[in-house]
């Protein structure tokens, strides 16, 4: 029969292996990535393993054992992978199984079987078991055995950590096709959604506010190729800190009523923390949330509610830290905030509306902030990494291991990038040569990996005749375009009804200057002349920069004959 | 900076939309991206001062080396170019050529059957008698056609026979065959309807060979059972196999087919049931009739299948072969067993014989040794007699140790009594030793000395007392 002869399509999945939560995704036949729910229906599967009796629990079930059986429950182990005991920060594991020293680095000691001595599980072993459970869930969902996966890791994962992760995965029979960076996966998840097969150039900031840490990365996306320009990490900022704010708030409330501090009892604290996490999640969706815990401490039940405003006030400091991290990473990338075209918020804590709105405020209104609070079309930030990984997995599913190895080899990945944007001088649309106008149409943004090629068509000239094509390197400038008093009055004139507020507005506005980023000619590289272009005819210009920075310019009139072609020799590197 | 990416005009038909070719896989980037801007280029104001139309001013700034993230379709395209040292246009050309080949491969091959003019002029209302697979050009696949194949075949047929297309080509507005295609698609893409149609799809049946048919039975029967197997609820269906099939395989095959569980239904052949608004009794009557007809057909089908299996069983030479082999095996076993028995009997016999022989020999040896012992005893006895005589003779020769003349009778008596006593006290060997010492001795004192010595030794052994001897001591 014909169908059995055809090569079986490989089943590959993407795994986002997080410190607090993991998720799995696969790419359907229509090319859309979908996140898979595990047997319990969770798309965010807590990276927790718990041993009760002779049973191993995983995911949400294991997480609930943090209250009842914390010493045999392993959580927050991802970041311990491949690190020495001295190098790890055990704070997060305070309320779960404690990390202990082991020959290979870090391990946990848990009562795995009832009638045996406590077993020592290394982080690698725990990782293997965790990935096995994830892979089993995916296999159950898809009804097919899983052939391979792509796993996402933070940008600061070292080579040895990647290797250990790969081995741990192999330990449960799952081949790791590739290990990719989380922010890049998040970017890929959005890029795959765009319909065009020719993505434009943009500079993207990915902010990943996770459960225990926050990472920010500036990525240059140039024609669908991604380059990390800068990364910044905060290991003490994440969902747990936001939970802690609520824990403190409710503890104080409880103490007022019952004179006992639930934070002093480990079990009460675990209960409260678990409920506060849920409350926090609810507050991302609605403006107020209830919390009710039976027998929180000393046998007292606890019922209370909190509204979003209160929560935002309480967590202001943490949001400030996120904003600070964003600012510092852009600075580290040697860029201006206005150079960022798009901000992608990833990680579960990005659901918090305040985080999104504060970041939105930081950037000009033209910058898109992809998060549920600021954009209706945003993808669930917690699922981004898994989706991106699934897309990458589907792309390389049919590749041989050697092909992947070769394609990801530094010989291929390390590429020269342009340091200056490259463009063509354009005529001023108004003819006034205003300062706040673009002087150059940018073909190739700075940080574009070469070889690269871009083509654009222009409307020849207004009058017809000879056309000058001047290829230049571009400098970007911020121009103050703050409206003058008269203009402002014009705008404010509309709101004459609320005169009381007017004054405040004015005061605010005076401090706030409006800037615009415009392109300016920095250096002329080459000039070309195109003769006798008819009025309204279109001119097509193609710039091609080779790997050795040889620039080839081709210009022609669309539909016409002949054209100009010239080459600027590259540098002897 | 304003950019506008040109989008192809989305023309959609309201009725019977033409199927659009599925999207290109994301990792294939073929056409060059041209950004259409609304910018104008500056006019050349001053006179062009250079000889050439292209004038180089400076080189590009020095690049910086950075690590690309090895992720995404565009990176993979980059990696492909870099690894194979291709330029953009070369890569575009190669990828495009490959893609064209893939599309061609997908199109040709499977679904390209010549269209029967009779089929083209079919009346779509008569869809019950229509060969749906032939309409879509899948007659060589039939029930084996995959959903993917059906989809592809449908797309291809529609592209060819769409009424709009025919109208555009200047033909008459005839959409009959298009309706046939749509009906075939409707039935073949609905799993329930497809099963109903497959149930009565005679074209897919393979006629079983007659009982008298000659030739390779495997060639004759395998296609029959392969085709019948499509109705099985249980999968996989065992194949008829070939002459290398083992006995359990063949047995399993017949077991399976005698307990065949078929999903075949005959609803497709139902008579049309009148609408509700017509006579209700009439409707029920037709329904009953249909039900009965289905049941009847099902029974017939079961009987037919049974006959096929019976025929196959009757013709199956393998069964005879197996029986023969079994008999041979049995016989071989029997022969082996008999041989074994014979061998054992022989062995037992041999053993018994050996045993008897051994016994005999033993007995003979015993007898011989007994005889020897008797002779020795006799000899010893004789020797003892002789020795005793020697002793007595010695005493006589020494004149009974009387100094002169004839010894008086009491002396003789005493001496002889002592000698007799000594003889009784000595055993045969001692007697022999003493006799040998005495042999040849004539002197009375020597003889007496020897005798006295031997008396002393007997006394010292404690077998006699000195007082017993009267004459010699």
Quick structural overview:
The complex is a heterodimer of chains A (573) and B (473). Chain A has 573 residues and is α+β, with helices and mostly antiparallel strands.
Radius of gyration of chain B, rounded?
63 Å
The secondary-structure element order of chain B is: EEEHHHHHHHHHHHHHHH
The number of strands of chain A is 28
Distance between the termini of chain B: 166 Å
SS element count, helices of chain B = 15
Termini Cα gap of chain A: 58 Å
Structural class of chain A: alpha+beta
Strand content of chain A is: 25-35%
**Most extensive interface:** A-B, 101 and 63 residues
The profile of the biggest β sheet of chain B is: none
- The mean pLDDT of chain B is 80
Biggest β-sheet of chain A, characterized? 6 strands, mixed
Helix content of chain B: 55-70%
Looking at the chains present, what oligomeric state does this protein adopt?
heterodimer
Count the E strands of chain B: 3
Low-confidence stretches of chain A: 1-7, 495-509
Shape of chain B: elongated
Rg of chain A is: 28 Å
Envelope shape of chain A: globular
The proportion of residues forming helix of chain A, as a percent range, comes to 25-40%
Structure explained in plain terms:
Chain A: Keywords: ATP-binding, Nucleotide-binding. Chain A: One of its GO terms (molecular function) is ATP-dependent protein folding chaperone. Chain A: One of its GO terms (cellular component) is nucleus. Chain A: Residues 495-512 have a biased composition (Acidic residues). The complex is a heterodimer of chains A (573) and B (473). Chain A is an alpha+beta fold. Chain A has 15 helices and 28 strands. In chain A, a hairpin with a 2-residue loop joins strand 16 (288-297) and strand 17 (300-307). In chain A, helix 2 (60-68) runs antiparallel to helix 7 (266-285), helix 6 (239-258) crosses helix 7 (266-285) and helix 9 packs across helix 10 (353-362). The termini of chain A are far apart. The model of chain A is unreliable at 1-7 and 495-509 (pLDDT under 50). The relative contact order of chain B is 0.04. In chain B, helix 5 (147-161) runs antiparallel to helix 7, helix 7 packs across helix 8 and helix 14 (428-438) packs antiparallel against helix 15 (444-461). Chain B is built from 15 helices and three strands. Chain B is elongated. Residues 1-31 of chain B have low confidence and may be disordered. At the A-B interface, strand 12, helix 5, strand 15, helix 11 and helix 13 of A face strand 1, strand 2, strand 3 and helix 1 of B.
């Amino acid at each position: 029969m014909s169908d059995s002869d055809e090569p079986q399509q490989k089943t590959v999945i993407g795994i986002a292996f997080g410190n607090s939560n993991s998720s799995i995704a696969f790419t359907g036949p229509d090319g859309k990535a979908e996140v898979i729910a595990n047997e319990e229906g969770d798309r965010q599967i807590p990276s927790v393993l718990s041993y009760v009796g002779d049973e191993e629990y995983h995911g949400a079930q294991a997480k609930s054992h943090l209250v009842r059986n914390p010493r045999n429950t392993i959580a927050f182990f991802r970041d311990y992978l491949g690190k020495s005991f001295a190098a790890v920060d055990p704070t997060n594991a305070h309320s779960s199984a404690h990390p202990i020293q082991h020959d290979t680095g870090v391990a946990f000691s848990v009562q795995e079987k009832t009638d045996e001595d406590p077993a020592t599980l290394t982080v690698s072993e725990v990782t293997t078991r965790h990935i096995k459970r994830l892979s089993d869930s995916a296999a159950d969902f898809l009804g097919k055995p899983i052939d391979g996966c792509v796993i996402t890791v933070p940008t600061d994962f070292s080579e040895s950590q990647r290797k250990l992760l790969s081995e741990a995965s192999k330990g449960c029979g799952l081949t790791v096709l590739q290990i990719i960076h989380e922010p890049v996966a998040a970017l890929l998840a959005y890029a795959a959604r765009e319909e065009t097969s020719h993505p434009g150039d943009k500079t993207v900031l990915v902010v990943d506010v996770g459960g225990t840490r926050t990472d920010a990365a500036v990525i240059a996306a140039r024609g669908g190729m991604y380059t990390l320009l800068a990364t910044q990490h905060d290991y003490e900022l994440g969902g747990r800190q936001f939970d802690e704010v609520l824990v403190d708030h409710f503890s104080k409330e409880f103490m007022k009523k019952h004179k006992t501090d639930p934070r002093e009892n480990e079990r009460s604290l675990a209960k409260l923390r678990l409920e506060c996490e849920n409350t926090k999640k609810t507050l991302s969706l609605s403006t107020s949330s209830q919390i009710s815990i039976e027998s929180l401490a000393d046998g007292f039940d606890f019922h209370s509610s909190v509204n979003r405003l209160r929560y935002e006030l309480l967590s202001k400091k943490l949001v400030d830290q996120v904003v600070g991290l964003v600012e510092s990473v852009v600075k580290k990338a040697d860029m201006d905030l206005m150079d960022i075209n798009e901000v992608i918020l990833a990680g579960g804590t990005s659901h918090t509306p305040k985080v999104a709105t504060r970041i939105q405020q930081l950037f000009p209104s033209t910058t898109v902030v992809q998060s549920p609070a600021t954009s209706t079309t945003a993808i669930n930030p917690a699922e981004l990494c898994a989706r991106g990984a699934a897309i990458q997995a589907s792309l390389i599913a049919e590749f041989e291991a050697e092909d992947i190895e070769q394609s990801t080899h530094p010989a291929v990945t390390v590429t020269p990038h342009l340091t200056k944007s490259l463009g063509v001088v354009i005529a001023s649309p108004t003819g006034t040569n205003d300062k706040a106008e673009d002087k150059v149409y940018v073909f190739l943004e700075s940080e574009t990996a070469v070889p690269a090629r871009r083509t654009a068509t222009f409307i020849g000239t207004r009058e017809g005749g000879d056309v000058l094509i001047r290829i230049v390197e571009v400098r970007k400038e911020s121009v103050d375009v703050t409206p003058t008093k008269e203009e402002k009055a014009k705008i404010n004139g509309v709101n004459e009804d609320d005169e009381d507020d007017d004054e405040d507005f004015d005061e605010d506005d005076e401090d706030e200057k409006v800037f615009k980023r415009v392109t300016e000619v920095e250096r002329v590289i080459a000039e070309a002349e195109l003769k006798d272009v008819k009025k309204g005819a279109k001119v097509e210009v193609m710039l091609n920069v080779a790997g050795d920075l040889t620039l080839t310019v081709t210009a022609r009139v669309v539909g016409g004959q002949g054209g100009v072609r010239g080459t600027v020799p590259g540098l002897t590197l | 900076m304003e950019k506008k990416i040109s989008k192809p005009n989305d023309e959609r038909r309201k009725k019977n939309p033409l199927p659009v070719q599925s999207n290109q896989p994301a990792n294939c980037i073929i056409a060059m991206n041209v950004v259409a801007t609304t910018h104008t280029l500056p006019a050349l104001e001053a006179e062009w001062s250079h000889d050439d139309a292209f004038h180089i001013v400076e080189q590009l700034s020095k690049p910086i080396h950075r690590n690309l993230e090895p992720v995404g379709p565009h990176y993979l395209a980059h990696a492909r170019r870099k690894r194979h040292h291709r330029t953009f246009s070369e890569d575009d050309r190669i990828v495009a050529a490959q893609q064209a080949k893939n599309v061609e491969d997908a199109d040709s091959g499977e679904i390209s059957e010549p269209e029967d003019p009779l089929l083209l002029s079919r009346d779509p209302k008569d869809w019950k008698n229509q060969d749906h697979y032939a309409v879509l050009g899948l007659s060589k696949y039939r029930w084996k056609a995959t959903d993917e194949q059906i989809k592809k075949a449908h797309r291809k047929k529609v592209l060819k026979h769409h009424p709009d297309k025919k109208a555009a080509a200047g033909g008459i507005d005839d959409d009959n065959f298009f309706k046939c295609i749509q009906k075939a698609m409707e039935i073949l893409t609905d799993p329930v309807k497809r099963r109903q149609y497959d149930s009565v799809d005679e074209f897919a049946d393979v006629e079983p060979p007659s009982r008298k048919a000659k030739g390779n039975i495997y060639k004759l029967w395998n296609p029959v059972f392969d085709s019948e197997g499509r109705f099985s609820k249980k999968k996989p269906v065992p194949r008829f196999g070939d002459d290398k099939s083992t006995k359990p395989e063949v047995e399993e095959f017949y077991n399976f087919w005698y307990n065949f569980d078929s999903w075949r239904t005959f609803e497709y052949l139902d008579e049309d049931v009148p609408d509700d608004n017509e006579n209700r009794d009439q409707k029920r009557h037709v329904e009953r009739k249909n039900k009965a007809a289905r049941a009847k057909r099902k029974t017939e089908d079961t009987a037919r299948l049974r006959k096929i299996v019976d025929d196959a069983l009757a013709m199956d030479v393998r069964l005879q072969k197996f029986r023969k082999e079994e008999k041979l095996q049995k016989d071989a076993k029997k022969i082996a067993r008999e041989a074994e028995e014979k061998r054992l009997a022989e062995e037992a016999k041999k053993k018994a014989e050996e045993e008897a022989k051994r016994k005999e020999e033993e007995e003979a040896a015993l007898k011989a040794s007994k005889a020897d012992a008797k002779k020795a005893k006799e000899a010893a006895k004789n020797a003892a007699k002789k020795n005793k005589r020697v002793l007595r003779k010695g005493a006589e020769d020494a004149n009974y140790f009387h100094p002169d003349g004839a010894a008086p009778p009491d002396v003789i008596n005493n001496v002889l009594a002592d000698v007799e006593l000594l003889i009784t006290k000595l055993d045969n060997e001692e007697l022999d030793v003493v006799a040998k010492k005495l042999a040849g001795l004539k002197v009375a004192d020597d003889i007496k000395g020897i005798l006295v010595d031997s008396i002393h030794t007997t006394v010292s052994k404690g077998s006699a007392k000195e007082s017993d001897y009267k004459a010699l001591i």
